[in-house]
Amino acid sequence: MTSPDTQTQIPRRTYTISELAKEFGVTTRTIRFYEEKGLISPLREGQKRLYTPADRVRIKLILRGKRIGMTLRECVEFIDMYQPGHNNAEQLHSLVRDVKKRRERLLQQRKDIDAMLSGLDEVQNLCETTLTNDFPDQPPEPI
Amino acid sequence: MTSPDTQTQIPRRTYTISELAKEFGVTTRTIRFYEEKGLISPLREGQKRLYTPADRVRIKLILRGKRIGMTLRECVEFIDMYQPGHNNAEQLHSLVRDVKKRRERLLQQRKDIDAMLSGLDEVQNLCETTLTNDFPDQPPEPI
DNA sequence: CATTACCTTTACGTTAACGTAAAGGTAATG
DNA sequence: CATTACCTTTACGTTAACGTAAAGGTAATG
Lengths: 143, 143
Prior knowledge:
Multidrug-efflux Transporter Regulator, Chain: A, Domain 2; 2 strands; DNA-binding; two-stranded antiparallel sheet; homodimer; mainly alpha
């Protein structure tokens, strides 16, 4: 029943800062910056930072938020919605209100994306018909 | 057959800067800033700027791009895809390549949004089941 | 004709999100 | 033990996207 490993509190798998930086395609400075701003709090092994799988997930969520134009502050707000710690009814209602607002914004963004996607479709169609009509003898370029 | 109005080149309908600012919920400074950056080029009536429907559409497209996290530079690039001026085959192929790249990014963003939306669904469900289980006698709050 | 409501330009200020450089610690490796 | 490859902190720099203030023009309105 006792834990078979001698490491006491360190999680099974950890990551160094450069491992995560490489995995996510960002610089180590970026990851340290997120810590400065309180978005993550890695463990320490001496001076070195050690990132748990949970830290890794947080970084992943931050970068996901950033891809759709969220500020870092908005990313934290979003991530904090997942966390419990909201115990009483008023807090739960408030959280539901926040969730609804955020969902509306996400739905608007998806509308924007869909509009832009169909715009791209039109452009590509127009290009390709023009190419086949006006330049019928060009060989189709390889991928 | 002659045009019945005395205005020569001014489009039928124009907008002032504050009309557009109010419509789109931005400041006039924002609109002037877009002009500084070469995103729009309104007409002038003396000193005053006069915006055509085409200018208005450009602003709309800029703000749409911004909502999904595009920089202003990316917004111009996107809008420029709509414009013709690409005549030869090489330019058309290049445009199609750009369209494909942009589409990939938009699809990734839509994936991100869908992931976040289902996350929100889970949070809301958890909140609501907790509310109905642990606080069964609270009156449902009005909208 | 003074006020009001718009418009203009110029120019400096601000915030977010890092980049970059300097100066140094540590652990393995030839 | 010198080199290499990581890691650290501190601190100043940079870019985008406006905000804000100052100083002034113009057209209608009471």
